[in-house]
Design a protein that fits this description.
Layout: H1 12-23, H2 40-51, E1 62-66, H3 69-79, E2 87-90, H4 100-104, E3 108-111, H5 123-127, E4 134-140, H6 149-159, E5 162-166, E6 174-175, E7 178-179, E8 186-190, E9 203-207, H7 210-219, H8 228-232, H9 253-285, E10 290-292, E11 299-300, E12 306-310, H10 316-334, E13 337-339, H11 350-353, H12 370-378, H13 394-402, E14 403-407, H14 414-430
Parallel strand pairs: 2-3, 2-4, 4-5, 5-8
Antiparallel strand pairs: 1-9, 6-7, 6-11, 8-9, 10-12, 12-14, 13-14
């Protein structure tokens, strides 16, 4: 294999920044003007604004730091003022953290089907679930493969529906010159330890409207308006009056220092992941019976992981045998984990089938879901009208059943891809899966 320039996940850059933060003796994220110490979160926010600047219209987005990707979704829902009892359309193939904030914000998740080739939602699969109760759509860029946002934005804008991008798996991904997360009303990101870059834990929200920025920021900080008094020259402080409810989704200055250390590596990480994933697409896509995840034109996916599916129906025990053989062989050799797609579509889990959203041990609580009670009053729906037990999204079901996922990272090269693809084809053939 040819030599590849070393790219350490963490190095002296992060160590120096963390030491500087610790030496200041204060990790509180708000730095008074009288304090001369460096404001790490403030500096990180400015860097993120520049990174996510849109080409057309050319603007700097507003950035709200948060404690996680899940918190980012919740902050966006609150900041965009999604009404209680309304419906939020979302993909069934995603992390549960995309959906639980909908429930906690007293809205109702509605699962759309997906495109059978990309695994992502489309304008048409979203359109099929829109009704008078729909207030928002959360678009998930699965595996870091950009969703075709333009038709979705046209559809939702025409109907007055807010669009939130869950870009937790898509840091660094873009379509043309525009970065994923900047197409919708809000873009939500994660910085946990598995992501392209990390602050240990953390995340952030991008919005393009000043009022939405203040609402998002206030919700993330127990609804303390730390900007209001400076903005309007009002006497007092943020404790003087609470004008709404919020949660503590703040991050600390240590997280800010980590972001500053990691951001300089993001473009190289994105490039390497794209090179690896594109090579896997080319090699597996040339084999009859294997279909790599399809990506939209002019996009740069960043391959949080790589997905492909087999065209033949495949039994669960055969799939498990294939994964076991690959993980014990080439996966172990290359430090790549081979998964079985993406678990199950979320509507198949007991949490949704039984609506165990709060107290799963209480039979009484299973009959009461505040969002449905609100919907019955606001939209005149029957009590318990949402039935997750009988949901069928055929493309999502088939995609999960026939898919495999390769959990790779920026240290994996095109040469690794060639070794891996050769072994995948051999094992699939030996099990008559292709």
């Amino acid at each position: 294999m040819c030599a590849v320039k070393r790219l350490d996940r963490f190095d002296q850059t992060e160590l120096n920044l963390i030491k500087e933060a610790l030496d200041a003796g204060d990790l509180w994220p708000y730095v008074p003007p009288t304090n001369p110490r460096r404001h790490f979160i403030g500096d990180a926010t400015k860097r993120l604004q520049q990174y996510f600047k849109r080409p057309q219209p050319s603007d700097l987005p507003y950035v709200i730091p948060t404690s996680s990707g899940t918190a980012s979704i919740h902050v966006a829902l609150a900041g965009l003022q999604i009404p209680a009892g309304s419906e939020v359309i979302v993909s069934p193939i995603t992390d549960i953290g995309t959906v639980t904030p909908i429930i906690m914000q007293n809205a109702i998740p509605v699962f759309a089907d997906i495109d059978p080739d990309s695994g992502n939602m489309t304008a048409e699969t979203i359109r099929a679930q829109i009704n008078e109760r729909t207030s928002a759509v959360i678009v998930v860029h699965l595996t870091g493969s950009p969703v075709d946002m333009e038709p979705i934005m046209r559809l939702c804008k025409a109907k007055g529906i807010k669009v939130i991008e869950d870009a937790a798996q898509a840091l660094g991904a873009k379509v043309g010159r525009q970065r994923v997360g900047t197409f919708g009303d809000a873009g939500c990101f994660s910085l946990n330890s598995q992501k392209h870059i990390t602050a240990g834990e953390g995340g952030f929200v991008i919005v393009h409207d000043e009022d939405q920025f203040y609402r998002c920021h206030n919700f993330s900080d127990k609804h303390r308006d730390r900007f209001k008094y400076d903005r309007n020259q009002i006497e007092g402080d943020e404790h003087s009056k609470y004008e709404g409810m919020g949660l503590n989704y703040r991050m600390s200055e240590l997280n800010g220092a980590m972001i500053l250390g990691q951001l300089g590596k993001l473009e190289e990480i994105a490039r390497r992941r794209n090179d690896f994933g594109a090579t896997m697409d080319r090699l597996l896509g040339g084999v009859s019976g294997i279909v790599p995840q399809k990506h939209i034109a002019k996009s740069r996916p960043t391959f949080f992981f790589h997905m492909f599916r087999v065209e033949k129906p495949i039994l669960d025990n055969t799939k498990r045998s294939i994964r076991r053989e690959l993980n014990l062989g080439i996966g172990n050799e290359l430090s790549i984990r081979i998964g079985g797609g993406y678990g199950e579509p979320l509507y198949k889990y007991p949490m949704f089938k039984n609506k165990n959203f709060f107290d799963q041990n209480s039979n009484k609580s299973k009959q009461i879901w505040p969002a449905e009670l609100v919907a019955s009053e606001v939209y005149n729906t029957p009590p318990n009208y949402m039935d997750y037990k009988n949901i069928s999204r055929p493309h999502a079901d088939a995609y999960i059943l026939r898919s495999f996922s390769l959990w790779c990272n920026e240290k994996h090269t095109e040469e690794h891809a060639e070794l891996l693809a050769t072994e995948i084809v051999r094992v699939l053939k030996s099990h008559s899966a292709i």
